[in-house]
Amino acid sequence: MTRNQPIDRSPKTRRTAAHDGNQGRESHLTQLAQSSKIGRNAPSVDVALVHDWLTGMRGGEKCLEVLCEAFPEATLHSLIHREGALSPPIESMTIKTSPLQRIPGVFQHYRHLLPIMPLAVRSLVIKDVDLVVSLSHCVAKAVVPPPGVPHVCYCFTPMRYAWQGRDAYLDGWRDRPVRRGVARFVLDQLRRWDRATAERVTHFVAISRTIQERIATCYGRESHVIEPPVDVDFYTPAESRRGDFYLIVSALVPYKRVDQAVRACERLGRPLVVIGAGPERDRLETLAGPRTRFLGWQPDDVIREHYRTCRALLFPGEEDFGIVPIEALACGAPVIALGRGGVAETVDDQVGRIYPDASSEGLAQAIEAWEREGEPHDAGLARRRAEGLSKEVFRERLLDYLDQVRAEAVERSATPRPHVGRKSDNVRGPRMS
């Protein structure tokens, strides 16, 4: 199997890959994908799933859920698992965890264990499977697959703290130079380890073109883009009239830049509703005036109602993909977003407004210009864009890709190979570090 070789996804190419020289053999994964749609049992395909940690339902877990529904007999490996915090399809899996699971209070402090996570992931032993699929933004992609078994990594981003989040993490130790120096050394080591363990992946799948570029920069590897799913059956437009308030739906953490939205709306005298929780809330409330309301975290139906009735969603952060703006588009809401990261791939001036300057001033100017031009947005187009990222579309694209990967592996194993010496095998074979 050639690593990340561009694949023609046409039906003719898939049939050739699966059947050349093996007439009549059906791909097990194709049958499994079909059975997942019609609810019948499928031929056995041994799959191992790997996820960084299982502590709650966020965007990454919604991607994992699709795979758990498709492969209910698979074993799910993760560093830790908070029982009852995931959806039923995930909780019903056979779940194996690392020794970190036994640390008291681990669910409150697991992010502080980053330096020992590379050691912990080594304990996730995978044997006797046909395919390994990891969903990774930290260490899951470093799992060691059995020799010759394809490993597909659905990559949310290369290890955040070691790459794009490195400077922000170090800034947190600005007033403690000794700890900052230690942290810099640890992150440098993690970066080298992260780059090296990318060799354990045979195929990378990126969540956006932004992440595709990061994979190329950080790992020197090609990748295939499959965007995450959005629940367009739940997030739908309504007949409700739009109000006069702007909306933020976000975790209240520094990199989300919620403070820029608060300052921009305060400067313009515009009402702002903030839905979300996090360590930044107290600081944000000191910046806000009476026109800004903090609702804390809210259930999905409340969030949907606000999407349906807001004047526009504000999205000042730079995200790997940005599911919140797509949920808003699915409800027909305009989106005013910073034109960086994954959101710039789905939002433009037809469905809201994109602005270039990552500051409260830049956001305020974008709001004023959008209002001055009559608040242009095409709600129908917004909905169609969201529908192109539905759960059904995601499932079909991802399972189809896994089908191709598995077909390549089956074809490769069925093709007689000339005898070569051990030294040549070591040079030419895939590195499994």
Tell me the layout of helices and strands.
Elements (H helix, E strand, L loop, with lengths): L10 H9 L8 H11 L8 E5 L7 H12 L4 E4 L9 H4 L2 E4 L8 H4 L7 H5 L9 E6 L14 E5 L10 H6 L5 H21 L5 E4 L2 H11 L4 E2 L20 E4 L8 H11 L3 E4 L5 H7 L4 E5 L3 H10 L2 E4 L7 H8 L4 E4 L13 E4 L4 H13 L6 H9 L3 H24 L7 H7 L5
Parallel strand pairs: 1-2, 1-4, 2-3, 4-5, 5-6, 6-7, 8-9, 8-11, 9-10, 11-12, 12-13
Helix pairs in contact: 1-16, 2-16, 3-16, 10-14, 13-15
Total beta strand runs = 13
Largest sheet: 7 strands, parallel
Approximate helicity band = 25-40%
Q: Can you give the mean pLDDT?
A: 85
Name the overall outline. globular
3D architecture notes:
This protein has 17 helices and 13 strands. The chain is of the alpha/beta class and about 425 residues long. The chain folds into two domains: about 10-230 and about 390-430, 3-Layer(aba) Sandwich (Rossmann fold), CATH 3.40.50; about 245-385, Glycogen Phosphorylase B (Rossmann fold). The strands form two sheets. A seven-stranded parallel sheet has the order 3-2-1-4-5-6-7. Strands 10-9-8-11-12-13 form a six-stranded parallel sheet, with helices on both faces. Strand 6 (about 205), helix 9 (about 210-220) and strand 7 form a beta-alpha-beta unit. It is globular and about 65 Å long. The two termini are about 15 Å apart. Residues about 1-45 and about 420-433 have low confidence and may be disordered.
Summarize the structure in short.
Helix content is 40%, strand content 13%.
Main attributes of the structure:
alpha/beta; globular; 17 helices; Rossmann fold; disordered N terminus
